[in-house]
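Technical note accompanying the year-one report. For the benefit of new consortium partners, we illustrate the data format agreed upon in the data management plan: each record pairs a sequence with a C-alpha cell string. No post-processing was applied to the example shown here.
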Amino acid sequence: MKEAVAGLKAAGLEPELVSGGGTGSYYFEAASGVYNELQCGSYAFMDADYGRILDREGKRIDQGEWENALFILTSVMSHAKADKAICDAGLKAQSVDSGLPFVHGRDDVKYIKCSDEHGVIEDPAGVLKINEKLRLVPGHCDPTCNVHDWYVGVRNGKVETVWPISARGKAY
C-alpha cells in the first residue's frame, strides 16, 4: 500500500483517502503512517478470536483497550457428569471456525465442545445450576451474527433496543 500511495503521489495524484487494515492488524496500519482511515469492523463486537490478540504490553486486547460486546445468552440444561454441564448453544447458535466461545466473566468454567444444538461446559467444581444463564463470547462474530434474526441491545441489565439483522442468512 505504501508503494501504491507513493506511486500515485509521484504521478501528481494526491489520494484524499487511504483506507484499509482491520481489527487484527490495526496496530501495524496505524503505525505505518500510510492510512488515514482504518477498516476495523469486528472491534465493535470483540469476539473471542480477536480478543486473544495481545496489545503492546502483552495483554489480551479484550481485557484492556476494548471490551467484549457480543454475547450469546445460553442456559444450563443438564449435567452429563458432575463436572460437565450441557447448555443450549451449539453450532446452530454460533460459528466456531475460529475457535470455541468462552464463558464471559467466568474463569471457573470452560466451554469445551459442541454439537448442532448443545454445548458442553467443563465445570470442575460442579457450580453451574440447571437454568443458570451464561453469556458466551462467540469465537467468530461475523458468521455468528449471520445465524440470528436480531441483536438485542442490553444496557445495565435491561433490554434497551432490538435491531433486526436484515441480511441474516444472505451468504451469497
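Partners are asked to follow this layout when depositing records. Helices lie at 2-10, 26-32, 48-51, 141-145.
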